Amino acid sequence: MGHTATPPPSTGGLTATEHRLANGLRVVLSEDHLTPVAAVCLWYDVGSRHEVPGRTGLAHLFEHLMFQGSAQVPGNAHFELVQGAGGSLNGTTSFERTNYFETMPAHELELALWLEADRMGSLLTALDEESLENQRDVVKNERRQRYDNVPYGTAFEKLTAMVYPEGHPYHHTPIGSMADLDAASLEDARQFFRTYYAPNNAVLSIVGDIDPERTLAWVEKYFGSIPGHDGKQPPRDGSLPDSIGGERRAVLEEDVPARAVMAAYRLPHDGTRECEAADLALTALGGGESSRLHNRLVRRDRSAVAAGFGLLRLAGAPSLGWLDVKASADVEIADIEAAVDDELARFAAEGPSAEEMERAQAQLEREWLDRLATVGGRADELCRYAVLFGDPQLALTAVERVLDITAAEVRAVAAATLLPENRAVLAYEPTDSADEHGDSAEAAVTAPAGSAGSTAQEENAAEEAGQ
Amino acid sequence: MNDVATPTGTSMDLHPRPAGGTPTPWAFPAPERGTLDNGLTVLRCHRPGQQVVAVDVNLLAPLDAEPEGLDGVATIMARALAEGTDKHSAEEFAAELERCGATLDTYADHPGLRVSLEVPASRLSKGLGLLADALRAPAFPDGEIERLVSNRLDEIPHEQANPARRAAKELSRELFPAHARISRPRLGTAETVARIDTDAVRSFYAAHIRPATSTVVVVGDLTGVDLDSSLADTLGVWSGSAAEAQPVKPITADDTGRVVIVDRPGSVQTQLLLGRIGADRHDRIWPAQVLGTYCLGGTLTSRLDRVLREEKGYTYGVRAFGQVMRSAPDGSGAALLAISGSVATEVTGPALADLWQVLRTLAAEGLTDDERDVAVQNLVGVAPLKYETAAAVADTLADQVEQELPDDFQAQMYARLAETGTVEATAAVVNAFPADRLVTILVGDAEQIAEPVRQLGIGEVKIVTGS
Q1: Are A17-223 and A248-435+444-457 equal in CATH topology?
Q2: How many Cβ atoms are within 10 Å of A45's Cβ, its own excluded?
Q3: Most buried of B2, B19, B360, B446 (most Cβ within 10 A)?
């Protein structure tokens, strides 16, 4: 067990301490006794960017297998035990990491640690062909449900492939292709575990109503004897030129309900001031109902049902800004693109007004407060900064970094990146042009703003439980 | 302590599964109830640490009150509340909200209308001011109403194209009598929405929106907040006529077992939605129904997913749930009891056969004591997690008000769940989901699924196309 770091200056009363076991497992603790709950979050430094050609989707398929039992946890018992203890849990896979999390009533914290340690140390004793075949089918149905059976469902996958070239580790999305999912073998899964699921390739954070000393003793007891190993290859180099260097464009004629324009821009890496500035630029341009694109396309021109920007932050490759505009009836793609280009050019030239900066910063600050409102959200952010940037304390000062950005920096990043030559564009043309208004269904269309980047960047182990 | 071979050939120490510690008592928060001079009911709840305050307003404007032929006017009016006031234009209002880092959402549903504000505690007074302006003095400019109507018309094809929403709409149409508002789309049809104009919106507002029939719920960290004074200056100056009782028609439904296939050629999955109506929160069997429904399909380890997902791999997940449509002490309300999910097109027949087999086995053999125990432990145990955020608490309190339940309903619910036995839970869920009295909606490729579904003998099969 390593040293306990001095807590840094706190933000909003939050503090975190860092520890390291002899096997290399990094541990982050944060106490909060307001509610009797405790979150356990475990980030493995492996995501779809580590996958090799012909095995896309393996990181996510493997994440499902982590719920299929280990030495002392038969079958589905991981789910059963956590839920039976009054906890909630899931796992997700993205480009850059795989995370597993349990939020427990505080008195059941030890169970979650025992479960995570059991599968980290002994998964392969239980992994078998039957589980693999079953979860392969489940994941293929996840792909169908979330992407293939939904209008515009594969847009993000297509844009990603256009922004990150063939052979680049971020060229494919975490869900992977049906052919590669079919090709994954038990030996692939075993090899994946042996390569990446080691304590020295993970960060464990525990947040909430905890006794730090006792918690660390449990961590040492359950995780301490799992041997570290260094079989991992670094991910393939994700560096790319700042600009795509020429617009890439595809026109898709599909059975979709309306014309749409989607575009993706290469943006600065996460962890830089320029990325924070880009977040503010996208917020001012397309992050809410007072954003420039909403005001122009939805309110004034009435050419769009919804228009917004989302940001997918990436640390190991350029981040991705995603524009999503769904056209109103009878509006041409060219008119929408002209209006978008006009707004982007104007913003790049003049930058945000003082009021726009204030609004964008207020919105991003609230989004941070929302993320930090739960112990699970805090645990995830601590892991994120520890895994991707080497310092969990950065999570506690994230808001300050957003508030520190100036309008000039926002203008500069917009001028440098939000350019036609730095984007990939998908133009959707419905195949059934005689698209009369049908009847109404039960819920409103979800506005793409803000949520745009979140739909396809990560995959879950399970549907959220009801009730 | 045992040793087990690990991937690298070394070993980890295995420890027995830990027993939980002593639970820290937790109770669903009790709100403080009061009334402002204008008749507005106020529920407030201090939640330490919750820096984003949730403010929910219930307005007694049920969809039943929409004038004949103007389905959707409640939704357009609700959206128009945020489109300008006596102090701000529509664009200015959106900008002012976002300047506070606030979000304002409106939702018109069968029992009434909900307006939800979320705002950092530091800007609560400002947020309450904007909320009060929207309720007290909406401008309803002609241009904005026209825009909202055309925007709404543009949303409809998107909802039609979404399999889950399409299924929900079809189920309402099948289940409820054609003359009942609840049988028709919540947000109106293209025909009815196109008729909505400023006069219709103003009339609906004048007839139904007033403080005396409204309740505001304020939840969050209220340390240092003078809520009385903030409320007096904002929602306190809203005026309106006294309350009047709304006649309520009981909800009835035809649950004769039958199948409707909504043809969606080329679908790679079939969206399932099976439903009927049953007991709501005023019925004393509600806790038993919640418990039994959870055992049937509340999570990945419930009966449905144990077979359909974890054994067969037919789906990413199928859920059973009970969702209150309206609930009142006179018994006129009902809950929608439903099973939903999507399965691969080619296994639609076998998946439905298995689903029915699960229902029949449940009816024949009942739940086990273990199942009941785990379900209770989960439903009761997750309460402190589920209600970590201010928004979660506010939503539940607002639902209780809307459903005319006492403020301690949720708090009592946990005690009632704990007292519910296996026999009662079995009876409730078997009554809720009788295999021969379910209306089944399948949104999928009729050419591929119709024949296998007919062979199941689960009721007459009808195929519909278009809207």
Answers
A1: yes
A2: 20
A3: B446
CATH class of A248-435+444-457: alpha beta
Q: What is the distance between the alpha carbons of residues B371 and A301, in angstroms, rounded to a whole number? A: 57
Q: Would an 8 Å CB–CB cutoff place A8 in contact with chain B? A: no
What's the CATH architecture for A17-223?
2-Layer Sandwich (3.30)
CA A11 to chain centre: 24
Is B186 within 8 Å of A258 when comparing Cβ atoms? no
The first and second tokens of residue A222, run together, are 């359950």
**By the CB < 8 Å criterion, does A250 face chain B?**
no
User: A362, B100 in Cβ contact below 8 A?
Assistant: yes
The closest of B170, B221, B242 to B441, measured between CA atoms, is B170
Q: How many CB atoms lie within 10 A of CB A241?
A: 9
User: What tens digit of pLDDT does each residue of A287-340 get?
Assistant: 989 999 999 999 999 999 999 999 999 999 999 999 999 999 999 999 999 999
CA atoms within 13 A on the CB side of B129: 14
Q: What pTM did the predictor assign? A: 0.94
Instruction: Classify burial at A466, counting beta carbons within 10 Å of its beta carbon; exposed 0-12, middle 13-18, buried 19 or more.
Output: middle
Q: Rounded CA gap, B454 and B446, in Å?
A: 11
Q: What is the pLDDT of residues B156-168, one digit of tens each?
A: 999 999 999 999 9
Select from B119, B300, B340, B443 the residue whose CB has the most chain A CBs within 10 Å, as the one to mutate to test that interface.
B300
Q: Are strands A37-44 and B334-344 parallel, antiparallel or unpaired?
A: unpaired
Query: B149-186 burial string, b = 16+ CB within 10 Å, else e?
Result: bbbbbbbbbbbbbbbbbbbbbbbbbbbbeeebbbebbb
Mean residue pLDDT across chain A: 91
* Distance of alpha carbon A203 from alpha carbon A384, whole angstroms: 9
The answer to whether A37 touches A87, Cβ cutoff 8 Å, is no
Q: In what order do the strands lie in the sheet with A459-460?
A: A17-20, A26-31, A202-208, A37-44, A98-105, A88-93, A459-460
* Tokens encoding A221: 């007891």
Closest CA to B187 of A324, A438, A449: A438
Distance CA B191, CA A440 (A): 10
Domains and CATH numbers, chain B: 32-237 (3.30.830.10), 258-464 (3.30.830.10)
Within 8 A by CB and 6+ apart from A214, the residues are: none
- Cα torsion B91, B92, B93, B96 to 10°: value is 130
Residue B101 has its nearest CB partner, among A12, A86, A363, at A363
Q: Quote the crossing angle between the two packed helices B422-432 and B348-365, to the nearest 10°.
A: 140
Q: Is the pLDDT of residue A467 over 70?
A: no
Exactly one of A51, A63, A157, A356 is catalytic; name it. A63
pLDDT of residue B247: 78
Q: Say how far apart CA B305 and CA B299 lie, in whole Å.
A: 7
Convert A347-378 to b/e letters by CB count within 10 Å (16 or more is b). Answer: bbeebbeeebbbbbbbbbbbbbbbebbbbbbb
Set of chain B residues whose Cβ sits within 8 Å of the Cβ of A444: 155, 159, 187
From chain B, pick out residues whose CB is under 8 angstroms from the CB of A114: 15, 17-18
Interchain contact B26–A (C-beta under 8 A): yes
A78, A81, A82, A83 alpha-carbon torsion, rounded to 10°: 120
Catalytic residue status for A442:
no
Residue-range domain boundaries for chain A = 17-223, 248-435+444-457
Among the listed residues B275, B58, B71, the one whose alpha carbon sits nearest the alpha carbon of residue B181: B71
Tens digits of residue pLDDT in B305-350? 999 999 999 999 999 999 999 999 999 999 999 999 999 999 999 9
Residue B57's alpha-carbon distances to B54, B84, B135, B219, in angstroms, are 10, 18, 10, 12
Distance CA A25, CA A376 (A): 20
Low-confidence ranges of chain B (pLDDT < 50): 1-3, 5-10
